[in-house]
């Protein structure tokens, strides 16, 4: 309801329109990248998983743990996260991103990586 209120009371240009412009810029950048590659491989998080309850008192660290997954969501790209190893018995994740409507390619690459790892 808050979003509806903001968009209906003169804030459209200040918030929604600006967000859509930023989204378009990100999409254009990804389009350029996917002209040269089939898939992007990135970390899922900036660090390995933390122990249960370890960061409970540090909400900023918990929030930033998702920072690498945001760009796929904003650009509307298919992406998946998968385990790729361990460090001190804590899992390490990698993220794969593909171009729009190339989920089949994304899943095939993930399967091949899974076989290797």
Radius of gyration: 18 Å
Beta fraction: 15-25%
User: How far apart, in Å, are the first and last alpha carbons?
Assistant: 45 Å
Helix percentage range = 40-55%
Query: Are there runs of 5+ residues with pLDDT below 50, and where?
Result: none
Mean pLDDT across the residues is 87
Give the topology.
Elements: H1 2-8, H2 12-33, E1 39-43, H3 59-64, H4 70-75, E2 79-87, E3 90-98, H5 103-116
Antiparallel strand pairs: 1-3, 2-3
Tell me about this structure.
This protein is of the alpha+beta class and 117 residues long. The protein has five helices and three strands. The chain has a three-stranded antiparallel β-sheet. Strand 2 and strand 3 form a beta hairpin. The chain starts with a helix and ends with a helix. The model has no long low-confidence stretch (mean pLDDT 87).
Give a brief description.
By secondary structure, the protein is α+β, with helices and mostly antiparallel strands.
Keyword list:
5 helices, about 120 residues, alpha+beta
């Amino acid at each position: 309801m808050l979003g509806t209120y903001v968009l209906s009371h003169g804030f459209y240009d200040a918030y929604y329109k600006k967000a859509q412009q930023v989204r378009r810029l990100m999409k254009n950048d990804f389009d350029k990248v996917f002209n040269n590659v089939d898939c992007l491989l990135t970390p899922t998080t900036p660090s390995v998983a933390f122990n249960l309850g370890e960061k409970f008192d540090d909400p900023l660290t918990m929030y930033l743990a998702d920072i690498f997954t945001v760009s796929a969501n904003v650009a509307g790209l298919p992406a998946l996260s998968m385990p790729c190893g361990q460090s001190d018995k804590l899992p390490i994740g990698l993220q794969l991103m593909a171009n729009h409507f190339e989920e089949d390619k994304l899943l095939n690459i993930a399967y091949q990586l899974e076989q290797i790892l």
